[in-house]
Amino acid sequence: MNTKFDDPHIAVMMAGSTLRKVKSRSWKKQRHFRLLEDGLTIWYKSRWAGRGHSTFSVTEVEAVREGHQSEVLLSIAEEFPASHCFTLVFHGRQGNLDLVADSPEEARAWVQGVRKLIHKAQTMDEKERLDQWVFDWFQKADKNKDGKMNFKEVKTLLKMMNVEMNEEHALHLFTMADKSESGSLEIEEFVLFYKMLTQRDEVWKVFQDYSGDGEKLMLEELESFLKIEQHEGEQSGRRAKELIGRYEPSETAIKQEAMSLDGFQMYLCSQEGSIFRPELLELQQDMSRPLSHYFISSSHNTYLLEDQLRGHSSVEAYIQALKRGCRCVELDCWDGHDGEPIVYHGHTLTTKILFKDIISTVKEYAFKASDFPVILSLENHCSVEQQTVMARYLRQILGDALLVCPLGGHDLQHLPPPQELKSKILLKAKKIGGLESCPDDTLTDEVSDDEELANGDADSPSTEDPPAEKKTDKKSKLSRELSDLVVYCKSVHFHGFDHARSHAKFYEMSSFSESKARRLAKEAGADFVQYNMRQLSRVYPGGLRTDSSNYNPQDMWNVGCQIVALNFQTAGLEMDLNDGLFRQNGGCGYVLKPDFMRDATSRFNPEKPEEHQGYKPLRLAVQVISGQQLPKVNQKEGSIVDPLVRVEVYGVPKDQAREETPHIQNNGFNPVWNKTLNFVIHTPELALVRFVVEDYDKASRNDFIGQFTLPFKCMQTGFRHIHLLSKDGTAIPPSSLFVNISISAYT
After folding, report:
1. Within a domain: residue 279?
2. Does residue 301 have a known ligand-binding role?
3. 168 a known binding residue?
4. What order do you get walking across the sheet with 41-46 strand by strand?
5. Is 640 annotated as a binding residue?
């Protein structure tokens, strides 16, 4: 990254600083940190550990917090002043790095320096990004740091890059790039070597099919490619001009209104050439429907960073979930010492957090990723006294953001829309009476929203027995102050669909364990869909999932359940599906359900999709052409991946399917499959498609390499790149798949 190294803050980082790395009140160790010459990598080591060191890239850092802005730094606030402290927050699920500098000036240099570098990394265009990538490889491979690379270093580099290549071919490319005939490559020559190495024959073939002279695509040739292959229709002419202006690096070509192979490849690798329709990434859905007409990104046991029995509870878990666009977080509330309510996983060894600290965190982070409403799902095990304390904190800390009465001018027949609840926080809990009435001051009821018990799924193991008085006293009082804060999300027991049709109020909502929700979906799918048009329902993982594993949310979305709560802290297929569904619509955490899940006359049943009125099945063909620069899974010297691609479809039961390519031996750099996988999609509006790349292993389970998941309706057809994500859901550039997607009517 050609950063201005005359910047004083970055100069401090490059010179290096001794900073204290803090993990807890008792673990504070000095480490030497410095920014490497690439202007991107931060290197650090302990002063004692011989040659051992660690590095991370600025691109992995999401934000820098100044002062005591993490639990760890708050715990040592008396020892180190805020002006010396800062926190690096990473993308994905990686833990924070809490650091203390020797002086305020040094802390400020690191805070400002890292922020500048993050900004620089985010604003690089495709070409700069590629140059940076090449420069990084050069730095890694130039072992003796003489600014040149001999053939031996090049061979080591190919292994590092996941390339299996015979020596003869490698030497041939090396010699062609060595223009100065010096027996080694300088950076400019290395760029040429890299270009020859990464030349994409499969892209060149597509280019050749439309180029008259094999050198460039004239405007009308590019237009016909866009019309025929990319299905751009009437706008192809206008788009061809735009794309040349945006991606063509050669001034000469631009003057001729033409696109070179370089420009063509750059377009195909860009956001516009990606599989996700760019306009659907923006906030573009109708946000004026009742809340019950949306899927809502929701987290279960939000306070946990790990498992359910001994895991660490942390306000950081709330920050991570809210920043990912989660719009419903859970608080498991219990009586604490000194009259202070606490949040933790009851009757287990998970650590405890103060209720008021979580509410302060929610206040600060609720609307950073999205303006749309956040629901606080309260699982309340507190005495009346501590419930009243909770109510006081909610009012004091959240202030006007807390919704405490129905919206003026809104009819009391339907839930209000997200649009009208922007920047509002709603409470989901038990309530005395309803919106219409004001009964007596106290109500004897089961205060606890204790999920497993409430729904007859007694599958909640814990590491200790509940105290005797808890067992006998299932009935306890509800605090009027807390009850009054519940407006549109009153927790009630579910008494069946018939009862709900005749008696339920629109603001009443029930929670279902995954097993109960799955059973209802199978036995009464159409009724469940109807029920979810008018009322909210929340689904949560069964109590046996003490490892914080997740269930497949698709089964619940198929019947229109809105609040499908997952353990956000656990990476894997289920969170990939959640991220995939909520990637659209500006990542705002709300996705409008298909019209047949909002129309009261519809009798859609996911078990029998062919019976619904607008049934129009589609055929999906995915030609998996090639892969680019897949990451190594095994860091062992000389190990190279054997990649295969699996395409998985999730949707109504009839749509669940998976097909895979054969594996390619020893090539993670530019494997070519050219294999077409076919699917029939019965309910396109609900289907999600997941592309997974794995390292084939005949002796044990394949290793995960990368994945990308998106709604079927958000796919662009034609030649597309799929930019892969890590297990954690973070980008791993420049790893990608090149595919050709076609969708047609199924007859």
Report:
1. no
2. yes
3. no
4. 54-57, 41-46, 28-35, 17-22, 97-100, 85-90, 61-66
5. yes
